[in-house]
Amino acid sequence: MSAKAQAFVNFYAAIGTLEKFVELDPQAKEIAKSYNLTIRFDVGGGPDGLLIFKDGTVQAIPYDGRRVDIHLICPTPEKFNDVVDGKAMPLPVKGLFKTLKFMGSKTAPFSVLTDRMGALMRQKEFKDQAEKDLSTKLKFYAMVAGLAQVANHDPIAQYAMKRIVDGEISIEILGECAATLIKKDGQLTCVRQPSQKGRAFMQFTTLEIAAGVIDGKLDAMSCISDGSLITKGHMLMLDNVNKILNILPKYLS
After folding, report:
1. From CA 148, how far away is CA 182, in angstroms rounded?
2. What is the torsional sign of CA 75, 52, 130, 146?
3. 58-72 pLDDT, tens digit each
């Protein structure tokens, strides 16, 4: 497993799924609404990204040179992965007091958001159907974002990624949520929005089928055979996405 690929997955797929968490969960949105902050996660040899909290929304994007409120440095991907696992702290080179207030303890807003989101995605028992559905949707969005990052940064997955032709791959749970993988300029990018001009389509028919495949309880090929996972369009694109999907679990476990 590549520490560099893990760092990109941790930022864009794990932390980045806050984008949908605050959109889908009213309690998370209330917490996010109280903060307008731009945080730079500057990882040597890994992601250099921004986590932007603005008016109750969250966005994770590559650093684009804008002014930031908090600048956090990790010297290596390994150190950043330790930070995400709660085993280390990043070095704040700007916004020390804002860092301490927003993310410096288990009761700080950032920690509350990420801990609750992570617990929901790992949860096996749920208080009601709504909580179970939210867990599945969050895992879905993390999966699609993780596919892009593993494709771009895992040495083995790159072989499959390079065989994907340019265009959009639509991945969705019918009637529930959708995301898009975009192949352009030799990279895959995840957009947590429906595809506008998909060349290939992967459609889970229900939340239950999506949860089963994501959790490894259902075999994707069996689901394709019985029609509960629909694939259509440019099949070579989907074949290579499936090869990357087989590598993803070790990064999202």
Report:
1. 9
2. negative
3. 999 999 999 999 999
Torsion sign over Cα 142, 148, 149, 155: positive
Which bin fits 129, alpha (ψ -120 to 50), beta or left (φ > 0)? alpha
CA distance 223 to 225: 5
Find tokens 């390994």 and name the residue.
Answer: 78
Contact 153, 5 (CB under 8 A): yes
Judge contact between 167 and 234, C-beta under 8 A. Answer: yes
The tokens for 144 are 């699609």
The beta-carbon contacts of 46-53 under 8 Å, at least 24 apart in sequence, are: 46/4, 46/7, 46/8, 46/11, 46/74, 46/76, 46/77, 46/80, 47/7, 47/8, 47/11, 47/12, 47/80, 49/11, 49/12, 51/15, 51/16, 51/18
- Distance separating the N- and C-terminal Cα atoms of the chain: 12
Residues 161-205: tens digit of each pLDDT: 999 999 999 999 999 999 999 999 999 999 999 998 999 999 999
Sheet holding 70-74, edge to edge: 57-62, 48-54, 37-43, 70-74, 91-94
| R_g of the chain, CA atoms, integer Å | 18
27: amino acid identity, one letter:
Q
Q: How far apart are CA 118 and CA 124, in angstroms?
A: 12
Tokens 């394709």 correspond to: 224
Q: Give the H or E element holding residue 168.
A: strand 167-173
Mean pLDDT of 77-105: 88
